[in-house]
């Protein structure tokens, strides 16, 4: 029997729908909410309202793009958590309604597991076991992956996520939200070794980014007191130095994890895995340590329904389904 899954992703501020047929992604539609740039960050109430506006159109476009009709579907999947509660509720409620109306199985997919599983959307795919560095605006994790749904967090941030560190650093520099991709772009023309920032002292596989954010803030403030045009004159170099410092922290921990667990299959996932320097450094390090690396396409790094669809594909294999009373969990942690 052909497996045709509709997947819905509404964990934060991107409304996305995807169609997967027998584990192959046929469409992946993403509608971003640009309105949040006016507020310097995602506003949860606005995000949930925007999802309500977008979700029907996004789902219809995903079906049309995949040349699939609602009656062709045989499973409905959605992001169950973690994420913003209001945003998750929109996707969950829509999925439950469609599941009930069409009498189809319902599958709530863990958002963070789905990020890891984005490495199985396209070939080549990782062999087990592998370590995945999952980095985004809300999470920074090192995950030991033993099987499709058998994953263990072996390191995570003790405070802020690296994506938040990028965005907050950008805000210090007067860059609009979301600032991480803009810092990446500005860094292309900057000297990454021009400025130094204090690195966190965390001995195990966990991360900490609150201290380096403070270091960046105090550095910029002190320089601005000497020269009010400091940021304007040095924007590319500051951006490059910030990016270099944050990526260096990630790479050091990834090396430590790979050595500790004696694993040479290494993957990355999450929105920050789209960062150009992180991708370059992963490729450099793999030659030194003889790693086999797996890096998803850019469209599968940020929040997207394709990863929810591929997650649902493996949930079905394990016969993991939900009933109509399922509720989203904004703090879900596997």
Keywords:
Nucleotidyltransferase, domain 5, 5-stranded mixed sheet, alpha/beta
How would the blueprint of this fold be written?
Layout: E1 4-9, E2 14-21, E3 24-32, H1 44-66, E4 75-81, H2 85-102, E5 106-110, H3 111-117, E6 130-135, E7 140-145, E8 151-156, H4 162-172, H5 180-187, H6 210-226, H7 230-261, E9 265-269, H8 276-289, E10 292-294, H9 305-317
Parallel strand pairs: 1-4, 4-5, 6-9, 9-10
Antiparallel strand pairs: 1-2, 2-3, 6-7, 7-8
Helix and strand content put the structural class at: alpha/beta
CATH architecture of the largest domain: 2-Layer Sandwich
Query: What's the number of extended β-strand segments?
Result: 10
Query: What about the largest sheet?
Result: 5 strands, mixed
How big a fraction of the residues is strand? 15-25%
What is the CATH topology descriptor of the largest domain? Nucleotidyltransferase, domain 5
Topology as a string of helices (H) and strands (E): EEEHEHEHEEEHHHHEHEH
Strand order in the sheet with the most strands: 3-2-1-4-5
Radius of gyration: 20 Å
The tally of helices reads 9
How would you explain this protein's 3D organization?
43% of the residues lie in helices and 18% in strands. By secondary structure, the protein is α/β, with parallel strands linked by helices. It has two domains: 4-116 and 301-317, ATPase, nucleotide binding domain (Nucleotidyltransferase, domain 5, 2-Layer Sandwich); 126-295, Nucleotidyltransferase, domain 5 (2-Layer Sandwich), CATH 3.30.420. The protein has a five-stranded mixed beta sheet with strand order 3-2-1-4-5, sandwiched between helices. The longest helix has 32 residues, at 230-261. The protein is globular, with a radius of gyration of 20 Å. The relative contact order is 0.19. The model has no long low-confidence stretch (mean pLDDT 96).
């Amino acid at each position: 029997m052909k497996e045709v899954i509709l997947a819905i992703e509404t964990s934060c501020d991107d409304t996305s729908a995807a169609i997967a047929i027998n584990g192959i992604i046929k469409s992946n539609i993403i509608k971003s909410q640009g309105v949040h740039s006016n507020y310097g960050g995602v506003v949860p109430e606005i995000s949930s309202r925007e999802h309500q506006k977008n979700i029907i159109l996004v789902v219809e476009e995903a079906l049309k793009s995949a040349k699939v009709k609602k009656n062709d579907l045989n499973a409905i999947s959605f992001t169950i958590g973690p994420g913003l509660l209001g945003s998750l509720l929109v996707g969950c409620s829509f999925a439950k309604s469609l599941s009930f109306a069409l009498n189809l199985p319902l599958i709530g997919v863990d958002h963070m597991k789905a990020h890891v599983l984005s490495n199985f959307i396209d070939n080549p795919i990782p062999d087990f076991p592998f370590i995945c560095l999952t980095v985004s605006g809300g999470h920074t994790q090192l995950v030991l992956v033993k099987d499709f749904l058998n994953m263990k967090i072996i390191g995570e941030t003790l405070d802020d996520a690296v994506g938040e560190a990028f965005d907050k650093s950008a805000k210090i520099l007067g860059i609009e939200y979301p600032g991480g991709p803009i810092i990446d772009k500005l860094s292309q023309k900057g000297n990454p070794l021009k400025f130094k920032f204090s690195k966190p002292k965390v001995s195990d596989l966990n991360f900490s980014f609150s201290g380096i954010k403070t270091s960046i803030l105090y550095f910029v403030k002190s320089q601005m007191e000497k020269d009010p045009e400091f940021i304007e004159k040095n924007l590319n170099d500051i951006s490059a130095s910030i990016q270099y410092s944050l990526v260096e922290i990630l790479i050091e921990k990834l090396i430590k994890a790979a050595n500790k667990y004696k694993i040479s299959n290494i993957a990355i996932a999450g929105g920050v895995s789209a960062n150009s320097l992180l991708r370059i450094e992963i490729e450099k390090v793999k030659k030194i340590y003889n790693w086999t690396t797996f890096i998803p396409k850019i469209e599968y790094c940020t929040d997207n329904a394709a990863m929810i669809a591929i997650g649902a594909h493996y949930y079905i294999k394990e016969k993991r389904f939900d009933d109509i009373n399922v509720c989203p969990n904004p703090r879900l942690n596997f």
